[in-house]
Structures are given as C-alpha cells and as structure tokens.
Structure of Homoserine O-acetyltransferase:
Amino acid sequence: MVLGQDRPMRLDSGVELGPFRLAYRTYGTLNADKSNAVLVCHALTGDQYVAERHPVTGKPGWWELMVGPGRPLDPDRYFIICSNVIGGCLGSEGPKETNPATGQPWGLSFPVITIADMVRAQALLVDSFGIDRLFCVIGGSMGGMQVLQWAVSYPERVANAVPIATAARHSAQNIAFHEVGRQAIMADPDWAGGDYLSRGSKPTRGLAVARMAAHVTYLSETALHRKFGRNLQDRKAVTFGFDADFQVESYLRHQGITFVERFDANSYLYITRAMDYFDLAAEHGGVLANAFRVPGPGGVPKATPVRFCLVSFSSDWLFPTSESRAIVHALNAVAANVSFVEINTDKGHDSFLLDVPEFYQVVRGFLDGQAGAAGLKRRGA
Amino acid sequence: MVLGQDRPMRLDSGVELGPFRLAYRTYGTLNADKSNAVLVCHALTGDQYVAERHPVTGKPGWWELMVGPGRPLDPDRYFIICSNVIGGCLGSEGPKETNPATGQPWGLSFPVITIADMVRAQALLVDSFGIDRLFCVIGGSMGGMQVLQWAVSYPERVANAVPIATAARHSAQNIAFHEVGRQAIMADPDWAGGDYLSRGSKPTRGLAVARMAAHVTYLSETALHRKFGRNLQDRKAVTFGFDADFQVESYLRHQGITFVERFDANSYLYITRAMDYFDLAAEHGGVLANAFRVPGPGGVPKATPVRFCLVSFSSDWLFPTSESRAIVHALNAVAANVSFVEINTDKGHDSFLLDVPEFYQVVRGFLDGQAGAAGLKRRGA
C-alpha cells in the first residue's frame, strides 16, 4: 500500500515523508458497518505475518496463538490488520528501501521515526479501508507502546485498547540495553557507516551480537535455568575452550545467526531508537494522566472514551509489572475504563508470544465481552 | 613473583603451567607468627591495585573503601595481599604475556583456567610468604567465587571467609551475558582469531561492546533511573539521530572506551570462561553441602572449620540474594559457622565497590570480632 500520496506525512522530527509504502496483511472480512476491525501492532523485530508462514524463515506466524480460527482474535468475527512498522524491513518504508529521490537505499538518510510516526502511518492505512473506528488495537512490548499511542493520538478511533507487557516510557535500563545493541552493530566494519547495502556487505556479526544481548533480556532467569541450566552441549565435560560448551551458549548463537537472515541492521537502529524516544507523559507536561484526558463539554477535560485491558507478566524484568501499574494508576486518575491483569508465569518478557494459556484466556474474555456488547457476530452466526 | 619453578602447576584442564608469573601488591606488615594475613580476591576486571593508584588509569585503588588506614582492612593490623589472577592482564601469566616456549604472546594458546586454578596459584604465592593459614580471604563477585573455592580447596588454611555478592555456581543467565561479551569480542575483525598482539591490532570495538553489555548488569534499574533517568545529554530535545541523546548512552560509551585502555580482550575471554565453569556443587556429587565437609575423626565427615560471613545486596540481580542464601543453606546443613547479611541498597551488583556504609560496617564488625578473638593487635597497640 502506498500512502501519503496526496500530501506527505509530517514526522515528529519535522521531516515530511511521502509517498511511502506500508506493507500489511489482513485476516477475516470487514463487516458492512466496518465495526469489526482489529489492528495488531508488532514488537521490535516482529512483522506483518501474524498468522501465516513467514516468507523468509518459513516459520509459522508470530502470533498464531492469538490470531486464527478458534483463537481470541478469530478471523470469523474480526477483520484483523497488521502492518510492518515504518522503519521496518519487511516491505514498509525504511532504511532498507530505495529512496525515490536518489535511487539509492535510504540507509541512514532515512528520517529517524517515533512510535507516534508508526501510528500515524497505520492511521493512514486504516483510513484507506474507510474504517473510522477500530474495534480494538492490540500488541505487546513495542506493540503495546503503539497501542497506548493510538489511544492517546486517536481516542475517538479506538474502542478497545490492549497494551501488553509494555510501558508508557522506555526506562534508562532499556535504553542502555538498546544502546549496547546499536553499538554492536555500528562496531561492525561491514556496517560501513550505514552504507552497507550500497557496498554489498552486511554487518551480520554486529547484528547477531545485538540480537543475542537483547534475547537474554526477553527471558527470565528462571526460564533460562529451566530450559538450559548449566547443561552441557552434546558433551559430558567442559572442553576448556571457547566453543559453545553450555546449551545456553548454542541457543544464543543460534538466535543471533537466524536473526540476521531476516532482519536489517539499520532497521534495528531505527526501531530501537523509536522505542527509546517513547515517553507519553513527556508530551503531556510530565503527567501521564493528562495523556488520557480528552476535551469534554464546555472545554472541561474528561476521561478518554477508550476501554483498556492491560496485561503484564510476573517474570518480565524488561517491562515489569510496575510499568503497567503506572499506566493503570494514570488511567484511574482520570476515571478511565481500565482492567488490568498480571499473569503469573516464569517465561519472562516473551510470555506474550508463548503458550501461556491464562494470558490468552484473559484477552479472550475481554474481547468476547466487548464484542458481545458491540453486537459483533461471527460469520454465519 | 615467579611461581611453579620447582614443578609446574597442574591446571584443571590437565595442562601443566610453569614457571609462571603472578603479580601482586601487599599492604601492611606480616606479624611474627604470620597470623595476620588477609587475601583479597578481585573481580572479573579487577586487579592487584586494591588501595593505591592504578598504574594505567591513574585512578585510586578499586577497594580503598575497604582497605586502608581506618578502613575495615587496616594495614596497621593486617598484612593484606592481592594478586592479579592468572589469566589476567596486569602482570600475571595470561594470554597477553609471552609464552616462554615460543617467544610469542600466548594468545589463545594460553590454557583455559578455572577459579580453582586461580586459587591454586594464590596458594603458591601464600606459601612463598611462609604463611600456613590466612586470617581471612575476602572478595566480591568473582572474588567471592575465589573465596568459596579457597574455603573448599584449603579449609585448614582459611580462618575466615567473606564471600560477597557471589554464587556457588554461575547461572544460565550469567553464562548468557558472558557469551554475549565473548561474541562481541570475537566478532571484531581486529581480534584476528586471538592473534591481535602478534599482528599489532586490538579489538577495541568488540571489547568496548562487551564491557557496555556487562556494565548494564552491574547496576540496578533503580540506580540507573536515579543516576540518569531519561535525561538528555547537553541538549533540551532529542536530536532524531544516533548520537548519544540520553545521558545513560554517553555513560555507557564512556565505560566502553575507558575499559579498553586498561584491559586485554583475550583476558576477558579467559576470565569470563573461568566464571562460567564455576560450579562448586558439581565437584561434590551435585550436593553443595558436601563441598563444606572435611574428614573428621574416624573418617566421619565434619563441618569445615572455616568461619563464613556472607553479604548480598538487595538490588543485585546478577548475583541475587537467593544465590547467597543457597550457600548459607548448604553451610547450615553441615552445621558450619556462618553469618549472613543482605544489605538493603538500590546500587545493584557493584554495591560492594561503592559507598554503602552499612556494608563496610558489617564487614568491619565481623573482622574486628574475629581479630579480637585471635588476638591480632594493631601496630603500636
């Protein structure tokens, strides 16, 4: 989908982008009154292949536990949209794509984007379907940041918001972890100041290290211990060398190697930067609650009309429950409609992608309730 | 000090090393009956310059809060020894030194060493002073691992052991973080398969990334938030670029840049590997308590004679209190003499190096008590 053709999209940086491409997938059918649309927002290294085989890796969609027949987001009931974020590398405009002005890959000449810019682009996509109001916007981690931004930027266009394992601002520790990843990429000579595509090289080593560093943060210590402990790799004793002696080392190396096949290093820089910049309260005088107020009768601010269902995971130390609780407090401060569940699991931040039945039950319960109230029917029902 | 001249030291790997150099510093005077010796064991990137200016960085000693006049380890009372671990890079035998057999830098031909090997080398150093029994062995993090190993390898040679912010085995998560650092170093083309010294290059970029990744784990989220939060670097607004916008980014980059001036990349590989391999229980049938039993009368095992004082820090997520507690449980299981304090602080793993008054009070209290019982006097007293 090419967007911003009539007029370019103005980014937070002040740069005007357009026309630009946004790659997306949909599942299910938009109903007659266009009231059954759900926007799924993906995380840092996610993409639009929510519920179908990934074209590069050949693996199943990244959220088939959430989206699909019989799943909480059933295409029989909902029209589900997921787009690759701008700055991404699976077809949407980003550093890997060609800058129409130069005919060369954008590389670092691509403008730095924000979570709000990602959401702006998605809003144009939603417009293109003629959808005024989304039944639901849902996503985990950076996807959850987009959900929050949607609710703040377009409160009248979101009926229900489900931000999962996320935060209203990126913490100092998380910025630090991102900076480690960026430095790993930029330390790779094959990165070539961001110009690697023009030169025919790829900073695979640096990107693999960035992925490994990040991957450790996606799991809990308990999960790592349960999965690997100090188990040795195919051997009965340590080798007194620097090969992967421990299973956890092989696992990490595998994560690094497979990641570079499907992801662009510059996209990694851009998307981590967008997360670092995310700070909803900062744009509202430092008071998060203000982000959730909308103009009311006589100019008196009132609570956002969006219904929220927040989910956090007990063992998530990257986006801990305290971050979700801060959002819930802000929503309560304006008397917004919010429910909040902390799921007890040892699977860490990645829980929202994993088989954690209670999590899917919570989301299903919330969505079914709201869909029932809104009169959304299953196809054929 | 050159050690292993009479006969080489047999390492855990089976390799025989010797003669080999061990660089050390001492503070204070050994008393007549050689009963006042304290061995300080340093952490991963530490060295022998405990309480004096560092010869490379010009900075104060790394533990001047613990060692010095009026400090818990007062040279007026104790003879304090600290040696650079083997595998290190400040004068002890390690990959940076010259392999006498070839006249070339050891590089990766240096044998992989373990915590027990570090302790074996220290025992030879202690022998060279004619010291039979150390009044105390003390150290934090990897230093604490050495303390534990001393107590297990030489229970009759250690009166008091103070393992701080440490563990009896390196966790899967910590192995993972180390592996990220090693991969960052080995991804740097200037590492050259470990042969960089012969080639006149240095993998400074990879080593800096390794240091940055590790440094994040040494601090708590709270400490990072308190120190930096989302504060911007010398600017009022974000720059929409990849320079260090946030103070935490500049801080991390600085940590990386300064570290490479004082540390050898191959040493980083060897020392992290030694920590990964550390697993006291594994050498004792998987039962940690067995590590703390010694042969008693009639061959019946009895508790180690070593007195322990363990310290952990509440915000240390790298070596959390649960790891210390596991050691305390094992010591209690054999009815050993142990006291344990968790210090409440938000400063993270690095607390043992920082100004946390309660921590130094605890150590002072324990040492003063034991020194009094042992009749150790201050000089001139």
